[in-house]
Amino acid sequence: MEDKDFLQFIASVKKMTGIDLALYKEAQMKRRLTSLRQKRGYNTFAQYFDAIAKDKELFYEFLDRMTINVSEFFRNPGRWEVLENKILPRLAKQSPRVKCWSAACSTGEEPYTLSLILLRQKMDATVLASDIDEGALAKAKQGVYTDRSLQDCPKDLVAKYFEKDTLSYRITDEVKRKVTFKKHNLLADSFDSQFDLIICRNVMIYFTEEAKHELYHKFSRALKPGGVLFVGSTEQIFQPQQYQLETEDTFFYRKMG
């Protein structure tokens, strides 16, 4: 009975939003959403769906829980050093204007990290940043962060590109100007093409193997030959050649051809 309730919830969410929860790892997703439903006092997923369909706050909370908006600037700093010192210089030689995409960008720390690096290197580039969660995108556009989000951000960049308030840091317009935010569902929407760099980190771990397989194909098709896919530290691609990719460095995959 409980499984039927959850499966009906998945079908209702897909019909209402286009988000297919069946493409996420079921046990993980079900556990997370069950605890949220119980916390809000609903005995069944049917009751919970009726509530989120009527209440925008509840709906955004559901989206937030589903997409795990946890991020920091320069997360895993060593990988960003490789991007800055090895990958981006090569891409700049290949394209006079580097076209970048931060996919599933959450609350903006990742695309703004990229923007900070591009400013430091004085590189001509565009950065598209996308996420399924409108609440996360709204926060990203505001560009206000806690000191915890900035713990790995180089101090000189914090001093130059952030304005400190009492309890938070506001990113400057110079950093924001490089980034365009857009709502996008990785699993359902079409991808743009001819990217030099796609960053998609710490998101694939929530998807089923089938969904991951399809996404790696789509990312590969969206890259220029020689373009790079940058993934998270738990998301190594074990047979990249099946997606026309080859390892350029740890967690960096270059499009072949």
TrEMBL record:
PROSITE patterns found in the cross-reference section: CHER
Name of the protein this chain belongs to: protein-glutamate O-methyltransferase
SUPFAM superfamilies according to UniProt: Chemotaxis receptor methyltransferase CheR, N-terminal domain, S-adenosyl-L-methionine-dependent methyltransferases
Record has Transferase as a keyword: yes
Keywords in alphabetical order: Methyltransferase, S-adenosyl-L-methionine, Transferase
Lineage of source species: Bacteria, Bacillati, Bacillota, Bacilli, Bacillales
Any single biological process term in GO: methylation
SMART domains registered for this protein in UniProt: MeTrc
CDD domains per UniProt: AdoMet_MTases (cd02440)
Enzyme class: transferase
Domain CheR-type methyltransferase: 1-257
Keyword Transferase applies: yes
Gene Ontology MF annotations: protein-glutamate O-methyltransferase activity
EC number: 2.1.1.80
Catalytic activity: L-glutamyl-[protein] + S-adenosyl-L-methionine = [protein]-L-glutamate 5-O-methyl ester + S-adenosyl-L-homocysteine
InterPro entries assigned to the protein according to its UniProt record, in alphabetical order: Bact_Chemotaxis_MeTrfase, CheR_C, CheR_MeTrfase, CheR_N, CheR_N_sf, SAM-dependent_MTases_sf
